[in-house]
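We now fix the convention by which a protein and its fold are recorded. The integers have meaning only within a learned vocabulary of local backbone shapes. A complete example follows; check for yourself that the lines match position by position.
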Amino acid sequence: MQEPIQILQQYWGHQKFRSVQEEIIQTVLENRDCIALLPTGGGKSVCFQVPALARDGICIVVSPLIALMQDQVKTLKQKDIKAMALTGSIPFHELDAALDNCIYGNFKFLYLSPERLQQELVQERIRQMPVNLIAVDEAHCISQWGHDFRPAYRNIHLLREIQPTVPVIGLTATATKTVIKDIETQLGLKDIKLFQQSFFRNNLAYKVVLAEDKNRYLCDILKDKTAAAIVYVRSRHASVDFAKFLRQKKYTAEAFHGGLKNEEKQNILNRWMENTTAVIVATSAFGMGIDKPDVRNIVHLNLPESLESYFQEAGRAGRNGKYAAATIVTQSSDIPVLKKQFLSGIPGVQEVKLVYRKLTSYFQIAYGEGENITQNFNFAAFCGHYQLSAQKTYNALRLLDSCGILKLSEEVFKKTELQFLVSGAILRNFLQENIRYNEPVQAILRTYGGIIDHKTNIDLKSLQQKTGLKEQQILKLLSELQDREILDFSYNTHDASVHFLVPREDDTTINPFAGFIKKQQKNKERKINSVLGYIADDKICRSKHLLNYFGENLKEDCGICSVCAKNTSGLSREEMNTIYKKLEKLLQSGPKDSREICSKLPFSEVHILHVLQLLLDKNRIKLTSTNLYTLKK
């Protein structure tokens, strides 16, 4: 067996492991189950890839994101390591051949989504594979208490049943003690060893600022127009609008959201990775598994729905060890919006029962029947028929999925897609000559920013309300515009499907899961309240607050967050000048790291770090490539 350090040097070019990586790898090679909690950018993939390469056989990796799987497979192939990912709707004969390659073709890694694992063919072939390790990436998704619960993750225990002697490693960057315990239970881990690296990042300043004019403050944060940044917003529409605003302010900025085609997404990502584009304005899906070390700023223009998701997104800044900031820009109206958007959308037991009854009635399923029946339907039409809240209904269907009562398709909110093919000037001229199209076109342009640049999902029901036209009238006009090559659109009559897993029994079907539904409701409320508590707390160091949420106690204040900066702002100009003069004299002897500076100056660490940050902002000092402070020449 090749030594792990030799594998690291051969394939990754590193001379030594980071922190606890070597200990985790050794545990896996001893055939012990383990859970590894490493911060974002902490090198989780090395912890399962190196031991898998050290042994004969193949490593099965379960991952929730197709982009993440594809990125890791691409990286492995570039190292001449045989790896494949089973994603998308692969035809049966291709799937069959791919699985045969895993058995007989000397492949080292097979990446699977949890949904793909449900297929009997996949399970049967895994039984025949020489599996040497099972790795569950983003393992918090298996826990109902985690921030990105995926019902299909519950079935990963099938791998343990199929390959009972193979060690399992669960990896995540964000998990509370409750989630860790749930991961252990759900994966069926035995005699586990838990590895938890400190989540503290001494170069990352967490900030919360109150700003009624978010546009202006965003420009203040992104004052270096060449520095890499991610701006998180909640909607596709907002991502397009803010990207357009930044371009008007002479930034290189692009919007990134789920409505873009895969090729468009990849091109945008490549430009950002290569620093051709500085700022990505994105919905929360962006950034997972992307290792860009020089991100200077992460900005949230909407309140996050959980501290877990915020911590993960904020952690994408400053992976190169240089100073970086993660800033939440909020205003007084954000709190009621957050409560309304998330808390009001959580269904109770009676509401879940109502949605289930309406769904079975909608498809005319009789009592005692319906098992293994699949039905396609239009989600918006269903909600409209029974006058149900779309968000609450969707969450109720997700809960029914989690309880194993039905299987919900992933396409629920897929709407009609539309993009204009002509420029604004040509479109204006066309509308002047063809007035009958003016009302629906103007309604679309006013509602969906960026629809001339990107294919965008539109809501026909909303257009009906704004124009007074019936759906069929709107569709007829859009079809005519498509024939005249003014726009391109696709219309989906069905945007959802459900597969009923058990016979219809109404209350009797739901009652066994009432406790679970109530716990989910309380868990969501707890997460929202944790976010609101973090925003409101201007007394405790923000690093301390966040780490305490994840069960880690930080002894010293970070010295650079918005709370620490406020606490040190009481320094007089004379005191700051005194620190600066001593600091300047010290740095004249050569570059030094913050620890050495603090040990040699007779001031508090918090005050020294505060002055260092001020000097960095004013370009009086700079950080070297090895993260040392030095005077600017």
Summary: The longest strand covers residues 204-210. The chain has five domains: 4-196, 204-331+537-549, 340-413+495-525, 416-490, 570-631. DSSP finds 27 helices and 21 strands in the chain.
